[in-house]
Amino acid sequence: MLYLKSFIFNPFQQNTYLLYDDKGAAFIVDPGNSSSSENTTLKNFIEEKKLNLTRLLLTHAHIDHILGNKFIFDTYGLLPESHKEEVFFIERLPQTANMYGVPFEESPFPEKYIEPGDKIVLGQYEFETLFTPGHSPGSISFYNKENKLLISGDVLFQRSIGRTDLPKGNHETLLRSIREKLFVLPDDVKVYSGHGPATTIGYEKLNNPFLN
């Protein structure tokens, strides 16, 4: 069975996800943990479930989604994996953190990048990488067809969409990504976003005011 555990971390109330299976194989997606208490919460869960954390995946690299990268590297030896366009934001982390007044530790950089269409395997489960730019130039979403599960980062939210007024954002590109990459998925696919509650593709098709 595939399990998903979510944590709400940092001042931006960001959703960090752990994906894991019955055998303890695990990935972390967008680690936003940014304090000793959040680090402890995450580490305790991983130890309690006896998880073997093997990959650190990023939907994108805005500050709220990478504040825990250094902790994950120091604790589990994992470098972040992202689309190559997201390195720009990792480089800018110190300036961005200072602008928001957020404590931070400098993130390590990826040594390998995720390409659109890559298959990411967790035990017996396969995730397809969907290229969904707009909120950021290298935004990617992770889709598991078998479990009808999508991790969308900040592309699509319940009754909302990602902001595009940040550097390298593009509103029309974001709308196109949602319509051409996400809204073609089955209506009952559950969407786990970077902020806020989960939703479904079908619900957003009917109720998202930015797309109707």
CATH architecture: 4-Layer Sandwich
What is the topology, as strand order, of the major beta sheet?
Answer: 6-7-8-9-12-13
CATH superfamily: Ribonuclease Z/Hydroxyacylglutathione hydrolase-like
Question: How many helix segments?
Answer: 7
Q: What do the pLDDT scores average to?
A: 98
What value does the Rg take, in angstroms? 16 Å
The string of secondary-structure elements, in order, is EEEHEHHEHHEEEEEEHEEH
* Overall spatial form: globular
The N- and C-terminal alpha carbons lie at a distance of: 36 Å
Summary, kept brief:
By secondary structure, the chain is of the alpha+beta class. It has seven helices and 13 strands.
Properties at a glance:
212 residues; alpha+beta; 6-stranded mixed beta sheet; 5-stranded mixed beta sheet
What does this structure look like?
This protein is α+β, with helices and mostly antiparallel strands. It has a single domain, classed as Metallo-beta-lactamase, Chain A (4-Layer Sandwich), CATH 3.60.15.10. It has 7 helices and 13 strands. Helix 1 links the parallel strand 3 and strand 4. The protein is globular and about 45 Å long. The mean pLDDT is 98.
